[in-house]
Amino acid sequence: MKIVVIGGTGLIGSKVVSKLGEHGHDAVAAAPNTGVNTITGEGLAEALAGADVVVDVSNSPSFDDAAVMDFFQTSTGNIGTAEEAAGVGHHVALSVVGTERLQESGYFRAKQAQEELIKDAKTPYSLLHATQFFEFVTSMANAGADGDRVRFAPVLFQPMASEDVADAVVKAALAAPLNATVEVAGPEQYRMDEFFRDALPLRGDKRTVVSDPDAKYFGAELGERTLLPGNGATLGEIKFFEWPGRDGSRH
User: Fold this and answer.
1) Which of 70, 89, 93, 113 has the greatest number of CB atoms lying within 10 Å of its CB?
2) CB of 164 within 8 A of CB of 184?
């Protein structure tokens, strides 16, 4: 099959392109640096010509409320129009576990808008909700930084390795469209504040982790189980404290 991966040069996309190629498929990495811009539409029709499946793992370059909403609405709309014109049979998109519960956040309002556009489009789809990636440990800590302290709510989450995320995306891309949402998550649950208290020192990060029930996640308040998947989620195999990149090295 010809499978076009929007955001195909990024963290998840590059792994998806590689894995699809290993399966013998014609995987095309579509991103601004490969001449495909889903905001302006440049190169989109050409990239999708003859495509069987489109996988969207792209993300907004800005998390400002207005900018991120504009990105997901414009990009998803342009992809949908190009898919319909090209006769694409399956649209796979990566989103986030708990999106519908995090609507205080401008970022997650934009992700919800993206999902609604996909559901309303004519192309059959599969939506994949994933939990937080191990690779985002430092950026999540920076987002919760307060001087030499980092504030995290004492709530549960179930992060996962990008390798497991990519495997789940590939599985969805090679299967029939679900016209539904499925969830993937890491193999272990952690309390967020305790997790970062153990994880940051592995990276030489000496900041103090503070348990703060009022600490927000991308601007949204968190309940005990807001970030957890449901019972039917597929679980990855890689555990954080056995993951080679836990010390901050690239894997």
Assistant:
1) 93
2) yes
Radius of gyration of the chain (CA): 18
Inter-helix orientation angle 162-174/11-22, to 10°: 50
**Token pair of 207 as six digits:** 């900041």
Query: Is residue 251 pLDDT above 70, yes or no?
Result: no
211 near 160, Cβ under 8 Å?
no
* Cβ proximity of 131 and 229 under 8 Å: yes
**Distance (Å) of CA 52 to CA 48, 171, 240:** 9, 15, 35
What does the alpha-carbon distance between residue 129 and residue 132 come to, in Å, rounded to a whole number?
10
DSSP string of 131-181? --BGGGHHHHHHHTEETTEEEE-S-EE--B-HHHHHHHHHHHHHSPP-SSE
pLDDT at res. 96: 98
